[in-house]
């Protein structure tokens, strides 16, 4: 018994040593596998982060490129249907759109090149300051005070500059800053048009890439094409129903401003388009003009002017239902909420981002709600016999 006990005691340390070696080997293998898994994941995450960092300065430009290419894709398809090649159609569209942007910009820039420096010089020195317009005093609420300030600047510039020097300097800097910002924005828009034309020239591989990307996200090619169509239709709906309607509304308002002789008619027309894009009633621009017309013009002219602006202001109520959401599976209120929320969150490009996000989210929620009903219908169907299926 003693000999057997001694032998068993000798075997125990050996067994424990073997178990420890096996455990160490397992831990070594496990650590190696963890490193093999985590290292590629870390490198992939690092690569994605660096790519995002490199693309961040161009996000706005790329978004406008996608938006413009999506908006002009139907016209591109029509030109190709008439026998045009994809590259020829893209070159013609890119040239025409760029010219449409650059020609008015060049005219405005040539005019501003002489006007802005003169205005800044006048604001700093008081030279060549014209007398106050006679109609300025008739403007309600601010007419008399504005006329008094204008006359003070014309008669005693040093005293006026001493009283309003900081405001004049701030206004001068603001004008120069806005002019530079407008030039940069127009330049980026032209670059986006060129990139959109290039995208249209290669529309087949670009669309195939987008379909494959959406199919990878949604799980099937049919779903990918479905959601890609929703995105494209939403972008075109916003372009036609929001920007297009705002342009038409501003155009009619501008005609009224110029015919009646409202001071700053061009600026008021631009403001009318801006508030139309932001889904704000254009009456906040036309109401002061109507008050001005009743104060300065004859009663007949003012009444005709008011009727014209009522028609212009209500035109969006007729046009928007025809253009927004037409042919879409997303209701018009969803698109409008996306437009307003997108502008508040992301600026001008948010017109399209907000509408697309809400449209896709609405379709996803609707499909999710419809899924149980579809499953019940599928479960309620009795399976067909094998013999009948073979027949």
Protein model, in words:
The chain has helices spanning 2-55, 59-81, 86-125, 143-155, 157-201, 203-218, 221-260, 265-277, 283-296, 299-323, 332-346, 350-380, 386-390. The protein is globular, with a radius of gyration of 34 Å. It is mainly α and 391 residues long. α9 packs antiparallel against α10. The protein folds into 2 domains: 59-201, no CATH class; 230-367.
Brief description of this entry?
85% of the residues lie in helices and 0% in strands.
**Strand-residue proportion:** under 5%
Which percent range fits the helix content?
Answer: over 70%
SSE series: HHHHHHHHHHHHH
Query: What is the average of the pLDDT values?
Result: 77
Structural class: mainly alpha
What is the CA–CA distance across the termini? 82 Å
Number of helical segments?
Answer: 13
Tertiary shape: globular
Features:
mainly alpha, 0% strand, 391 residues, globular, single chain, 85% helix, 2 domains
Which secondary structure elements does this structure contain, and how are they paired or packed?
Layout: H1 2-55, H2 59-81, H3 86-125, H4 143-155, H5 157-201, H6 203-218, H7 221-260, H8 265-277, H9 283-296, H10 299-323, H11 332-346, H12 350-380, H13 386-390
Helix pairs in contact: 2-3, 2-5, 3-5, 4-5, 6-7, 7-8, 7-10, 7-12, 9-10, 11-12
